[in-house]
Each structure stands twice: as structure tokens, then as C-alpha cells.
Amino acid sequence: MAILYLSFGLCSVKVHLNNCWVSRVILVFCPWYCFQTTLPTEDTSCESVVTIGQHHIHACTFSRLLSIAEETLTEFLSKATGTAVEWVQMPGMKIIAISHGCIGVAARACGLVGLEPTRVAEILKDRPSWFRDCRAVDVVNVLPTTNGGTIELLYMQLYAPTTLAPARDFWLLRYTSVLEDGSLVICERSLKNTQNGPSMPPVQHFVRAELLPSGYLIRPCEGGGSIIHIVDHLDLEPWSVPEVLRPLYESSTVLAQKTTMAALRQLRQIAQEVSQTNVSNCGRRPAALRALSQRLSRGFNEALNGFTDEGWSVLGNDGMDDVTILVNSSPDKLMGLNLPFSNGFPAVTNAVLCAKASMLLQNVPPAILLRFLREHRSEWADNGIDAYSAAAIKVGPCSLPGSRVGGFGGQFLEVVKLESIAYSPEEAMMPRDIFLLQLCSGMDENAVGTCAELIFAPIDASFADDAPLLPSGFRIIPLDTGKEASSPNRTLDLASALEIGQAGNKGSNDSSASPGCVRSVMTIAFEFAFESHMQEHVASMARQYVRSIISSVQRVALALSPSNLGSLAGLRSPLGTPEAQTLARWIFQSYRVYLGVELLKSNNEAGGDSILKSLWHHSDAMMCCSLKALPVFTFANQAGLDMLETTLVALQDISLEKIFDDQGRKTLCTEFPQIMQQGFACLQGGICVSSMGRPISYERAVAWKVLNEEENAHCICFMFVNWSFV
């Protein structure tokens, strides 16, 4: 009997993914291929053939795949609901557990989502839509089983998170089936040569990692919705990366943050969207905003990894290897960039250049540094290069909102308007505004192991869903996941100043003096569209620009480091000074004068430093604003910074009126004269907003005039009692 064996091969194809055509190296099935098939051949006694679609599979091979699938199901269930892995609760996360003492890294979660099991399965199988590190999942073939389930052979690629490590890929079997109790199960594992199943040759530029039995157990709820159990268990081959990066590949906490929690967030976000028909303030539905954010993230990852199958090639360096330059002139990369300016000047580009680098940071939490880079762009960016980057994008009348346009899953999108810039002599008479679409993540989370990202791209006047994007930005990943600072707002703050400002009483190597100590790796990637004859000039410019940014980041990181607050590298002086102690004393004394009670019972006996410490750690949010026509904040305690979601460095950029809604502003206008005449006012509870745009409710607020030694008004202090994010 003639038997047609199923063979495997690699080819490069174009697939339509996320609204764009991308190149993929995938496994293909064909009767014979240019190299020897890797199907097992030791058992030739079986004469039957199984027909799957247009392909024929040797029955013995199919039997082995089914055996692997059933074994995978059993092992997955023992992890999801049993004790096959020793699980410990992840600190601060009741529904997340991480592994202890097992091979590789593993995380488990259990939660309720308001979606039906089949919809949950559909979302989870589309891994690139919710796992930003996933470049592609190519379904090579689908094999139905006699019990109504399916076996799928998958090839998956993951991006490398930095320039210092290679990307990962996986050759997988996925088994979908329904249990006797009606639960839907999706389980996966890597296929290896030792299992006598089909294998796949290595792919250039990728390290083959292993997915141990993992997956999703989805149980339907009686009233609708599903209870989902998630298990992720991987061996990411940490031997293949520099030792300093190995914590990223050996940490179950990092896996839980990046993968397990991301899956739950996606499910709950979509469930919320199904139950609500809301649109953002830019007129887009959440799904459209997620697609935009995914395009930004994907474009940044593609530039960062620089895969040859996407058209990237490396240019030679200039004698230093700190910055890597890549060039891409493939038509797909340039599609949509050559748009004419509305003023008649063409933007002709036929290539894209990426300058990228990575650096190790010490003793500054990622969230703090990224917040600073976002809120103080002028500290590191060059306006002329911003204008150059925008030159590839069509410019015209624009009515974009200069604020956040949507938030989801621990991240948010915003449109940032830069100052008017004249890029060319022709534009000098009419300088144009530049708008950036900006994706921010990891800036408002306390979770250990959270990656912080700031990714942005110039956008055109239409701000269309398919607008051309050339993403650039920063990614900071903590390396010491067990040593994260306790608060993400710990920057130029009173607590740090207090702990190191006692006339040098503590040594610099005292860990208690630097509670925010953490190592992290920052990766920078900037893209520029250019004409091919300008390649040498643009490459030189890009190198120098990235080196300048690295220098600025190092200076800012040094200033934000608690162990270096004494010098601050040229930034403002620390608050652990006599001036700060004086301000704290004025705040307490003025409160007693106007309200007739002590802010703290121990205030009478306290010295200046104790008052300052009490103010900083006060449970209610307290903040001072200036007595100007447009009052701005000048100081806040830790609770105040947490509430405003900002830092003391950026506090002065926030005006008082910006944090109140319309009703709050009306109330403030009514009560302000009373504050100035009577010295204080009690405000009813209401709603205000943080610097990140999140609504905040508070039970009540107290405002009082702060007097200096001459009993002149120095500022106004606000105290928000029992506040919480809505």
C-alpha cells in the first residue's frame, strides 16, 4: 500500500496580522521537501493512513501525538488543581501563585470572568493579542480527535525584551478537549525529539525554549461567565543570556507579571467592554485603542529585535559598539510613510533606520525613571530631532486631544502635543505643531517585576486607526525582582531625604538608607525614516542622539537614586533640609491655629525632624499649593504623591484646578475667599483626578492657610481624607 508521509519544512511567507503584512518563517507541510523529514520511522509495521484535510498522516505518528496530548492533559490538570508543583502565593496577589523549587519557572492563577468558555478559549488562543512579547503563533496543522477534541501543531516566536539577549521560539503541541463535567481545557507543551513526535530544525537568531505542560481550564458558571485556571510553566534556557540578565529568565514572579496576569487582564477588559458601550474621549472604542497600543508595542519590539526576515540589516559601527544601527528598506516597512505634506512639501523616504542600545541602571525603580522621562521630555529630547522624526508623516489641521485617550490593562494611551517647531527653512514662517501617540505602562503599579515602558510615535493629522507609525521609546525591566522598592513614588521625596540626611550618620552601603535599591536594564530604540543617499548622515545623527539620551538618563537616574540625593547631579536640592523642616512646622502650627486641634497628638513635643517625618507618613493626602493667580502644587506628602500619581520633581507642573472636576472647581471658587479670610474651610466629599487621569473619590477635604514666622500667608495646604481610586 502506498503511504504518503507528512513532511516538514521552513519557508518565508507573508501573513496579514494586526492590520499589516508581516514576514514569517513558518513550518509547512508538503509531500516531500528539500531536506529529510524528521518524522519517526522506527515503527514501519503500521499500514493504515489517517487523512487530515489535504494531508495524510501515518496512523502510528498520529497515535503518538494523541498519546502526548493525553499525557499533557493529565500533567496540566495536576498543576492547575493539584500539587504537582509546590505553589506559594505571590506577595500582594491573592489569585496568583508562583512555583517554588521546580524545573524552570511557573505561575498559576484562578479567576472569574464574565465571558462564556468558548469566547474565553478563543481569546486565549490568540496569544499575540494579549501577550506583547509574542511575535507570532503559526498554526501549522489541526488534527481532530475521535473524542471531539483537536490537536494543533504550533510554531511560536517570542521577542527578546532587550538588545542583550536572543529571542525565543517554541515548537508546540496544543490539545483542546472537553472534560466529562463540561469544562473546556486547552493544554500545551513543547515537542521534543525524545517523545518520538515530529520535530523542527532550529531557526536562525532564535533560542529554542521549552514549554512544560501548561494551559487553561475553563469551567462554565451557572449564571453565565467562566471560572478560569491558568498555568504557565516554561524553561527559558537562561544559560543563553548574560549572567546579569538571568533573573529575568529564572523568575516565576516575572513570568506571572508578563504572561499569567496579562491573560487575566485581557479577559476582564474584554468582558467589561461587552457589558459597556462606552467610547473614549477621542471617539474610539476600547478595542480600537487596544489595537493602536498593540501596533506601537509591536513596532517597538520589531525594531528592537531587528529580525532579518523583516528586512533589517546591521550597519558597521563607528569604532564604538555602544549603539547598534540597523537599516530597513523593505516595502512593507515603508508602506504608508511617503505621504505628502499639506503645504506641498513632499516627505520622500525609502528606508528606515533604528538606533538601539541597552544599559544597566542601579538603585532607581523603573516606574520612577519612566515617569520622569514622560513628564520632563525637555530633559532628554531634542526638538529638532522630534521635528525630523515627524517629517515622514503628513501634517495638516489637527484637532487631536492633548491628553489621555484611553487606559486599559495597566497601561494607557495619550496624545502629546510638542511645541511648534520649524524643521526646514520653508517652514520657518509657519512652524508646525508635532503630535505624538504615546503608550505608557508600568508607571502606576506597585507589583514586583513590572516592566515599565514609554513608547511613542509621531502621528498625522487624521489620527486614523491605520495611521503610519514609527515607534521609538524606552523599556526598563527590574532585575532584582525580590528587592523592589515598596512604593513606586519614591523619588526626590522626604522619606529618602530623612533617611540619608542626618549629617551623614549612615554609611553609603547601609541598605536601610536606600530602600529603593534595585538593578534594572534599560533598552532604548529610536526609528528614523530617511532617503537612502542620507544614510551615513542620519546614522551619525542617530548614534549621537542615542548617546546623548543615555548620558541624560544616567544623570537623571543618579539624581533619582536615594543614595545620591545629597548631590542630585544638578537637579533641585533635597527636601531633607532645614527649609523642609520649617515648612512642616508651619503646616502643623497653622492647622492648630485655625482649627483649634492638633494635626497629630504627639506634635507638641516633636522636634523639627520628627514633625517632618510625621507629615510625610501621615495617612491622609496632604499637599501645598502656591498663592498665585493659577495655583500650582509645591509640596505633597507620600500619600499626596500616591493620590496624584506623580513625583515631587513633577509636582510643580500640576495646577490646583486640574485635579478637580467641574463641580469641585465651582466649590473651590466659592470657598477660596473663606479660606483667605477665615483661614480654613471644610469641603464636602467629591471626585478629583490624578495626573494620570484616574478618578479619585474622597470623603472630605480640609484646606487651611499656612502662615510663616511673620504670620504672612505662605501657601495653602489641602488634606484629602479617606481617598481612594474609583
From TrEMBL:
Pfam families: MEKHLA (PF08670), START (PF01852)
PROSITE patterns: START
Residues of the START domain: 63-266
GO biological process, one term: cell differentiation
Gene3D superfamilies, alphabetized: 3.30.530.20
InterPro entries xref list: HD-Zip_III, MEKHLA, START-like_dom_sf, START_lipid-bd_dom
Keyword Nucleus: yes
Entry keywords, A to Z: Differentiation, DNA-binding, Homeobox, Nucleus, Transcription, Transcription regulation
Key word Transcription regulation present: yes
SUPFAM superfamilies: Bet v1-like
PANTHER family: HOMEOBOX-LEUCINE ZIPPER PROTEIN ATHB-14, HOMEOBOX-LEUCINE ZIPPER PROTEIN ATHB-15
The name this protein goes by in its record: START domain-containing protein
Source organism: Linum tenue
